[in-house]
From TrEMBL:
Residues 97-310 form the ABC transmembrane type-1 domain. Keywords: Cell membrane, Membrane, Transmembrane, Transmembrane helix, Transport. It holds the Pfam family BPD_transp_1. Coiled coil: none annotated. It comes from Streptomyces cinereospinus. This is Carbohydrate ABC transporter permease. The chain crosses the membrane at residues 39-58, 101-122, 134-155, 182-206, 237-257, 289-311. Residues 1-10 have a biased composition (Low complexity). Residues 1-30 are annotated as: Disordered. Belongs to the binding-protein-dependent transport system permease family. Its main location: membrane. It is a multi-pass membrane protein. It is found in: Cell membrane.
Amino acid sequence: MSAPSLTPSTARPPRPPEPRKTPRATSDGSFAKSLRRNLTAHGFLIGAVVCFAVFSWYPMVREFLLAFQRTEGGEVTWVGLDNLVTVFNDPAFWQAWRNTLLFTVLALVLGFAVPFVVAIVINEFQHGKGYLRLLVYLPVMLPPVASVLLFKYLYDPGYGLLNELLGFFGLPEQQWLQDADLSMLSVVLASTWMNMGGAALIYLAALQGIPGELYEAAELDGAGLFRKIWHVTIPQTRLILSLMLLMQVIATMQVFVEPFLLTGGAGPEGSTTTVVYLIYQYAFNFNDYGAAAALGLLLLVLLAGFSAAYVKLSRAEDE
């Protein structure tokens, strides 16, 4: 009987056969569905780009070109800076800028502060916030023409409600829209009432995002109402406040509807003539589209420069 071999076997068990890699099956239906979905998305994107190009970018480029052109008898000629010289030599040019800056300052004093105060007041209510928000936003939902006509009735020197109230308290009646000293203030009051609803809701949304613990800590430190607003509310809403300030400056520098409907545009002694109304006069009253485009280009450059400087200063302050 032979002894068993002590040498271990080096033979390995055979490996199981690897499964064959079959190519991934592509479904024509899923590919077609994906293609249709992408085409639909790109179609909507192309539509938006076309709308911007036709209604925003093309008018801007066209205005830039018109600022250096003159059209007479259907012929377009390049005149260089002649349109800018014409605009600068117009006596109404500087008056329009002064009135626009005055409207901007008054509108910021009222239109920037009043919505913020209204939002703080609404935020303090525990119940009925929805009704108060609707009440504040209601003027924004009204057509601008209807709102302006309402204020024109209020300002009427004969039977206007404001003069009736002044007479009730024994005060002299005022020529709100006929007095050169009061006409711009009257326009600002109407504009503030018409447009403050949107800003108030934005401020209210920002206020509701402030943690209540900050107010509780301020109360424990003995802070009153105004100190809580100054040290808690304003710092927590500084980003929204700065953004709304920039947007309101841009909007108020382009005011047109309120002075045009309340005072006919120019107002007594030209007291409500704004830059945009002067552009309207150049284009539709004087048929000088080159001067209108040149003045519009000046306004665009001024607002773009102000926006760039404001953003740069804001970033520097944050850093």
